[in-house]
Design goal:
- Pfam families: MarR_2.
- Helices cover 60% and strands 14% of the residues.
- By secondary structure, the protein is an alpha+beta fold.
- The strands form 2 sheets. It has a 3-stranded antiparallel beta sheet with strand order 3-5-4. It has a two-stranded antiparallel ribbon with strand order 1-2.
- Helix 2 packs across helix 6 and helix 3 crosses helix 6.
């Protein structure tokens, strides 16, 4: 496994050295790679007047169909308190419609509109390009392996397995 550079020259000519034990910490590398990816994806989506949460809601509605705000919150990991404002943005743009649930008039059902489907298709294309930017140094096989390894890590931690500090 290749390690990252031992020294990095910053824009002002200074040299930043990172200790080997830090450069080889998987958790640190995951955090730094996630921050880099978030920066690339966030900037790319912003250029299209979108945010990652817009994409998450539209993708969830497309895959699972109409849903309550609570269901969307659970599926996307977006806090319920943030979901209302996000849905307001998407509704104002004509990407989703909000209507009372016929089974329970106290809650709303959110539906993806035709315009929202078109927006999602555009964002899917953009996401593919952005993922290519993030993963440029990796081959297709390495990208697939990375996804499989990250899925395995996420599944492990989502099961609520106690960590070493709890033992």
């Amino acid at each position: 496994m290749a390690s990252t550079e031992e020294t990095v020259e910053t824009g002002d000519g200074a040299v930043r050295e990172t200790p080997e034990r830090l450069r080889r910490l998987p958790s640190r590398l995951l955090s730094m790679a996630a921050a880099d990816a978030d920066r690339v994806v966030g900037a790319g989506l912003a250029a299209e007047d979108a945010r990652k949460w817009h994409y998450a809601v539209l993708a969830s509605l497309r895959e699972f169909g109409p849903a309550s705000q609570a269901d969307l919150s659970r599926r996307t990991g977006i806090y319920r308190s943030d979901m209302v404002g996000l849905l307001n943005e998407l509704a104002e743009r004509g990407f989703v419609e909000r209507a009372p649930d016929p089974a329970d008039r106290r809650r709303n059902v959110i539906t993806l509109t035709a315009q929202g489907r078109h927006r999602l298709e555009r964002l899917d294309e953009l996401q593919a390009d952005l993922q290519d930017q993030v993963l440029t140094p990796l081959s297709p096989a390495e990208r697939e392996l990375l996804v499989e390894l990250l899925l395995r890590l996420r599944e492990h931690h989502e099961r609520g397995v106690p960590d070493a500090w709890d033992a």
